[in-house]
Amino acid sequence: MKRVIYPGSFDPPTNGHLDIIKRASSVFDKVIVSVLQNPGKKPMFSVHERKEMLEMITKEISNVEVDDFDGLLVDYVRTKKANIVIKGLRAISDFENEMQMALTNRKLTPDIETVFMMTNYRYSFLSSSIVKEVVKFDGCIDGMVPEAIHDYILNNRLE
């Protein structure tokens, strides 16, 4: 059984994230979408809220599990009995950063592979940071986030 970990902050989840989740679920037997607990960042949503949103948008995908973790990704991957990490890429700038992290993970744990998946071109401009900025200034996020969590994002954001 091929299990893959899709880690990220998902603050909030976007249509680009959902695109990667859906496509990964058609390639791998099990996709574990894992929210990183990063105390160094000031999130708009708590880990619990991010997990709740991810569960809302993936409830129809039977081979997707939502979880959270802190610490080293490679340690978490081992605890989930996986050996593949999937990372979504939008642009060359994403690749440079993700390649550095993938090579660091490979140095720490050579048996864990990182697979890069390009997002759909429709979402190549999209990031959680952009969504947060638009929300902060009461802009329209239609088409940026899954409909299932659109109102949740607008009604539950931290001020």
UniProtKB/TrEMBL annotation:
It catalyses: (R)-4'-phosphopantetheine + ATP + H(+) = 3'-dephospho-CoA + diphosphate. GO terms for molecular function: ATP binding; pantetheine-phosphate adenylyltransferase activity. Pathway: Cofactor biosynthesis; coenzyme A biosynthesis; CoA from (R)-pantothenate: step 4/5. Gene3D superfamilies: HUPs. Keywords: ATP-binding, Coenzyme A biosynthesis, Cytoplasm, Magnesium, Nucleotide-binding, Nucleotidyltransferase, Transferase. One of its GO terms (cellular component) is cytoplasm. Substrate binds at S9, K41, L73, K87. ATP binds at S9, F10, H17, G88, L89, R90, E98, Y123, S124, F125, L126, S127, S128, S129. Reversibly transfers an adenylyl group from ATP to 4'-phosphopantetheine, yielding dephospho-CoA (dPCoA) and pyrophosphate. Belongs to the bacterial CoaD family. NCBIfam families: coaD_prev_kdtB, cyt_tran_rel. This is Phosphopantetheine adenylyltransferase. It comes from Natranaerobius trueperi.
